[in-house]
Amino acid sequence: MPNLLVIDDDRTILALAEKALAPIADISVAANAADGLELLRSQEFDAVLLDIQLPDQNGLAVYCEIREHDRRIPVIFMTVEAASKTAIEAMQLGAFDYIAKPLNVESLRDLVEKAIEQRQISSVPVAISADAEGDGNSAELFIGRSPVMLDVFKAVGKVAKQDVPILVRGESGTGKELVARALFQYSHRSDETFLAVNCAALPDNLLESELFGHEKGAFTGAESRRIGKFEQCNGGTLFLDEIGDMAPTVQAKVLRVLQEQRFERVGGNKELKTDVRIIAATNRPLEQMVEDGDYREDLLYRLNGVTIELPPLRDRLSDVPALIRFFLAQAKQEFNKPDLEGLSPEAVELLTSYDWPGNVRQLRAVIRRCVLDTVMPVITPDVLPDAIVGGKGKTDSSDGGSASQEAEANAPGSQLPQLVQRLLDEKSTDVYGEAMEYMERFVILQVLQATDGNQSQAAEILGITRGKLRDRINTYNIVLKSDVAVKS
User: Fold this and answer.
1) Cα 22 to chain center, whole Å?
2) Which helix (H) or strand (E) holds 322?
3) CA nearest 48: which of 105, 87, 6?
4) Do residues 32 and 55 lie in contact, with contact meaning Cβ atoms separated by under 8 Å?
5) 256, 254, 245, 248: which is closest to 296 by C-alpha?
6) Mean pLDDT, the chain, integer
């Protein structure tokens, strides 16, 4: 479980943090700066909650010491006044975020979860180097020995230290974020901040505020000034995922940052400078979008300083055994199954000959589910999804047709209680995530069936962007075809 350090002289805040955040992190507390810094130097932490006013030292000075100790630890300031000048100054220096007192438990939990996720993104080593020979002591999250993957490794090695925008292209689930992280870790900015933003996950107005920040009163609900990612990430690296789902107004502002390293907050008129390296990623045909008038040609040229193409898993099936070994070892440890020995030859043969329309992400999900479902030391074909046993793996992503699910679990919503109970019986440590994934998949399937597979209508009904829907279709291996059925 992640480790969180809370530094505050208010006992009620410490008690609240321990109670509210215990489900998501192991909590260590300190009532003053000296004790907090001593804990920080003696233990590894994934995030820090820091009070602005401490009895023995100013919070900003403490933040500077934390940053000197480890630049990658996300620090969240707690302040009585949301518009605190000190908090804003800390954000400009690279703090992760700040939250106003009295603390809102839900907002606090969401913020801490995001901080821990960013810590994991920027801290876990990627086994990759310019000569394509990984460090044996590193966690091999970027796995592959096939010729196409060696080309990717070499490309990363060549451009990582070159301070130019990079566009990572590839299907959903191929590992574009891993490439971005490798580029960051092997760059001259590796000691600075790395932040990731999914452009498809936020409505247009919120995305603009997330990237550029906003002034107090800029729009309804803007009760205080907010520092955006370009300002917060000054000197570091910003990863813009799903860049093809960015609205035209946001595209124009991003283009200006790329050209001039200048921008204005939403609702502001003060020009701000920044020094940010941008790594963008997309699975969409940007050139066709330019022809259709949906994407700025000049922005495409700016983002496309260097392009790294990630191959789909079906084009590097020779890497599947190594990926299986890695994901199997992960799941065995995570789900506490010490007696698990591995996969039978028949199961391996099926997995290595499958087409994997959902790419590496789908493979990981299948292995995890197999480890959960098996009660024997060896995983056999009877616990594999029907789609793999039947040899079906091709996805038609056209707008027409209807939806069916080639997945590991049945879709009827009535089975959710049984799913939760099974996860509890198996002592899963991700019940919430598994259940939410199950429900999201079920809702998306129902809406796609109701719209006869029309993605534009389905996205509108769901209240999400079409790009986000397309990403979920790939993630959950939803196959659009003529007959409507939900298969287990």
Assistant:
1) 22
2) helix 320-334
3) 6
4) yes
5) 248
6) 81
